[in-house]
Design goal:
Helix 1 packs across helix 5, helix 7 (about 205-220) packs parallel to helix 8 and helix 8 packs parallel to helix 9 (about 260-270). The strands form 4 sheets. The protein has a 6-stranded parallel β-sheet with strand order 2-1-3-4-5-6. The protein has a 6-stranded parallel β-sheet with strand order 7-10-11-12-13-14. A two-stranded antiparallel ribbon has the order 8-9. The longest helix has 15 residues, at about 205-220. The chain has about 400 residues and is α/β, with parallel strands linked by helices. It has helices at about 30-40, 55-65, 75-85, 100-105, 120-130, 190-195, 205-220, 235-245, 260-270, 285-290, 295-310, 325-340, 355-365, 380-390, and strands at about 5, 45, 65-70, 95, 115, 135-140, 175, 180, 200, 220-225, 250-255, 275-280, 315-320, 345-350, 370, 375-380. It is about 35% helix and about 20% strand.
């Protein structure tokens, strides 16, 4: 029987990355790939190097897989290179996928046998079956993701993941990923280059099925909808709320503020919503327009106050020092975040991920401090604001 080892990379050393890298939750993308492989009768093994790093050379020599599938993102690029250097000579086929491979496929070492661009479920199955004869593998997006099996949570058993979540009382908290993509086109975001400029989602019934399975199997009632925009399709959210209400769960999700109405928020709260993670980004209308957020400061103020008036907690995400933002505009953002009084304010200093619109603009203008060894671009004055907000400058 063909055997596939799925894995990922260690997080970068603490204090080295412009991004928060401490969150240790189940990587559901690999769970979906595992489920697809097992459905085809392929044996699957899994090592989570992000949560519990292993000596991969020793492990591969011991377990002897036919294929090693590695999830690679740009934030962990240097950790991938370190790991790959220790295993590249082994008698196994290497398959690399994930955001970095989609955005920068030509950066992968020459002795990676397959580089998967985009979604990996069908590609990984065909590679394992010997049906692929090209190094760069790019399959069309799955139009209806309801065709996929539910993620294989069994591969995560025995691994120490985070069990708690802001705003949720019970544990363990399990992540769900019920949609892919976001068509909104924010200039600082590269999601559309990874998932396409579309929004595809699981039906309410499929979400309920996953929740019931996790409640029965792992005794949980707390869930994190870990995706870019859970609320984009209102009809789906309303149907989900009605069907999940009898299960007495609690959950948090991520949302744009312009998707939210009082009626929808009330339905979500009745179904167990405890908190929302929203992208407020800026306290200045010119900057919001520059970010292509299609929201205004007054809308932020109105929606956040509405959410909190209903007893729903808010984690607000603010973006500091985006390209061409002035010091006075940044101060307006700090002032608005203080005024709103959200339970959690995350002030993030802008750093450009490959192929976002801002990233490309900065490359053309040259108005940046540096491009680090993970291809992440740090704009002018990045160090100044990182020191102010984080207390240090990532190395």
């Amino acid at each position: 029987m063909t055997k596939v080892l799925l894995t990922n990379c260690r997080p970068p050393p603490e204090g080295s990355s412009p991004f928060f890298c401490n969150e240790k939750r189940q990587p559901l993308g690999l769970g979906y790939i595992s489920a697809c492989l097992k459905r085809e009768g392929i044996d699957v093994d899994f090592v989570d190097n992000y949560a519990e790093p292993r000596d991969m050379r020793e492990y591969i020599l011991e377990t002897k897989p036919d294929f090693v599938g590695i999830y690679v993102n740009s934030i962990c690029w240097q950790e991938f290179l370190k790991m790959f250097e220790t295993i590249r000579d082994l008698d196994v086929k290497f398959v690399c996928g994930g955001p970095h491979c989609t955005l920068m496929p030509n950066s992968l070492p020459y002795d990676v046998d397959y580089v998967v661009i985009g979604e990996g479920e069908r590609a990984m199955v065909d590679i394992a079956k010997g049906k692929v004869n090209t190094r760069i593998v790019c399959y069309p997006h799955i139009k209806d993701i309801n065709e996929l099996p539910d993620p294989d949570y069994t591969i995560f058993e025995g691994i120490r993941y985070w069990e708690r979540m802001e705003f949720l009382e019970d544990k363990p908290v399990y992540p769900l990923n019920t949609s892919r993509g976001c068509p909104m086109g924010c200039n600082f975001c590269g999601v559309s280059h990874i998932w396409g400029n579309t929004y595809r989602f699981l039906s309410a019934d499929r979400i309920i099925r996953q929740i019931k399975h996790l409640m029965k199997t792992y005794g949980t009632r707390s869930f994190y909808m870990r995706e870019d925009n859970f609320t984009l399709n209102r009809e789906r959210v309303e149907e989900f709320c009605e069907k999940v209400k009898p299960l007495n769960i609690e959950f948090v999700c991520e949302s744009r503020i312009d998707n939210l109405t009082k009626e929808l928020l009330e339905k979500m709260k009745e179904s167990g919503l405890k908190g929302l993670y929203v992208g407020t980004e800026s306290g200045n209308d010119r900057v919001l327009n520059m970010l292509n957020k299609n929201i205004t400061v007054e809308m932020i103020r109105e929606k956040v106050n509405l959410i909190r008036s209903l007893g729903i907690k808010v984690m607000a995400s603010w973006l500091i020092n985006s390209p061409n933002e002035t010091e006075s505009e940044i101060e307006e953002t700090f002032a608005l975040s203080k005024e709103l009084g959200c339970e959690i304010n995350n002030h993030n200093v802008f750093a450009g991920m490959p192929l976002s619109n801002f990233y490309n603009d900065l490359l053309k203008s040259g108005d940046y401090e540096k491009i680090d060894d993970c291809f992440i671009i740090r704009p002018r004055r990045y160090s100044e604001y990182a020191r102010k907000i984080y207390g240090f400058v990532p190395s």
